[in-house]
Known about the structure:
The protein is mostly helical. Helices cover 28% and strands 4% of the residues. The strands form two sheets. It has a two-stranded antiparallel sheet with strand order 1-2. The protein has a two-stranded antiparallel sheet with strand order 3-4. Helix 11 (313-322) crosses helix 13.
Amino acid sequence: MMxxxxxxxxxESDFNLKLxxxxxxxxxxxxxxxxxxxxxxxxxxxxxxxxxxxxxxVSLPLGVDKxxxxxxxxxxxxxxxxxxxxxxxxxxxxxxxxxVSCSSCHLPSRGFSNNTKAAIGIKExxxxxxxxxxxxxxxxxTQFWDGRAGSLEEQAIGPLTNPIEMGMPSLDAVVDKVxxxxxxxxxxxxxxxxNVSIEGLAKAIASFERTIISGNSRWDQxxxxxxxxxxxxxxxxxxxxxxxxxxxxxxxxWNLTDEKFHNLGIGWDQKEVDxxxxxxxxxxxxxxxFKTPTxxxxxxxxxxxxxxxxxxxxxVVEYYNDGAxxxxxxxxxxxRPDMTLEETLARYSKKNSTDAPPVKMLNLTxxxxxxxxxxMLALSGEGWQNIQAPEAFPE
Length: 395
């Protein structure tokens, strides 16, 4: 064991991460280099992962599950790596024309997302998916709406060569550009004892992203026993969230996400449907499925859904209340509480039949919808707000 490290149990699923050598998605991501496979195939040594034993690096607030916080054994957290990653995250010189950085889409002031329907990259080019927040991405390995990245390290380099994001011609070109900056050569040597490399760049940015944490929301305080932490309206909203609204079917656990992929009907009213997770797995059941986002700090991270179609939480609740857009691959989790087991089974045995039972409404009253939104506003936490852009960058 390396000095200065503690070991934390990790989930079994963390041991089977694979680097995808080809990314086929409507985000037009460039294929990932084979040379990175050794870095991103996180083959854990036993059932543990290493975390830097430095409370000033990562302070976990109330509500954050310490056993869910994991770091690959080959990329332990160090102060030099985190600081290098912060510089790289905010540095626009990583893009082809020095205009776009990671933080251009993941804005600290917007909960490390942005306020546009879709990501906007070099030359104002617009993607087709909303920017997901980085907050609490320490909780699971797969990244992006479709889970095509198997780790934060892999996710960190995806936008670099995307022609509509940062536009660099190749990963080698990224290394050459960063290597030409003397200050970065020094910082890479301090962090890794080596020259600038794409592996080091990915590890540094991922290390920084693992410090973007949120917890100690009023909901956390309520769950910890402080009955006065939530207002009466917020308590009623929590009851709806866990009951009539059935929100916790997908938005479950300490981070309010099951980290799974669901077809919610979003996009099936368009001429061309974004097939989401299907483009990664090729499985029919994944058509139109996207990852469940965390609801932590949800008031900061609109607009909502993978296509950014809803500008407010009220509109999101209205969509679920009125019934999802039906399609042959609608997720079973979207079935309504007044549907019997027999009806549910009948529906899913007749996916392509015109007499399949229709999707039913939640029938929440206006007041219930109001209370549900009030509860979601109580999910705003703390921890990430102190992260700021560097005052200067290496020269």
